[in-house]
Amino acid sequence: MIKSFDHIQLALPAGAEDLLRPFYIMLGFAEVPKPAPLVGRGGFWMRAGDLNVHFGVDPTFAPATKAHPAFVVTDIDRLSDRLVAAGHKIYWDTKLVDVCRFFVFDPVGNRIEMIAG
User: Fold this and answer.
1) Cα pseudo-dihedral 28, 32, 38, 39, rounded to 10
2) What is the CATH code of the structural domain delimited by 8-116?
């Protein structure tokens, strides 16, 4: 039976690690070391609080434009301003009247949802 959530994995094309790191650091993640046996595969791992995201190289990479992680954030307006200032386009969604959220695409095109919490 499922007990808890360990991590999510997002794909990236080979060589895009340095493109993605600053974006996820801007979201509040910090890089953590990958176990030595996995380092040769490329990619990297990040953590924010109890959330773990593993970025894995996919030789047939296609961005996830529908499937996506949704992160709860403490100051959604500040994060939105920071992302826009860095050149990222924000897509606010008001379809759920009780949920303040926006979508953004990371530098390789993966869809990410941010929810005020």
Assistant:
1) 100
2) 3.10.180.10
Classified as helix, coil or strand, 117 is coil
What is d(CA 8, CA 117) in angstroms, rounded to the nearest whole number?
20
Q: pLDDT band for position 16 (50/70/90)? A: very high
The Cα 26–Cα 46 span in angstroms is: 12
Q: What is the mean pLDDT of residues 5-24?
A: 96
- The residue with tokens 């794909």 is 11
Rounded Cα distance, 103 and 115, in Å: 9
d(CA 106, CA 63): 9
Tokens 């926006």 label which residue? 102
**pLDDT given for residue 53 in this prediction:** 97
pTM for the predicted model, two decimal places: 0.93
Would you kindly state where each structural domain of the chain is located, as residue ranges? 8-116
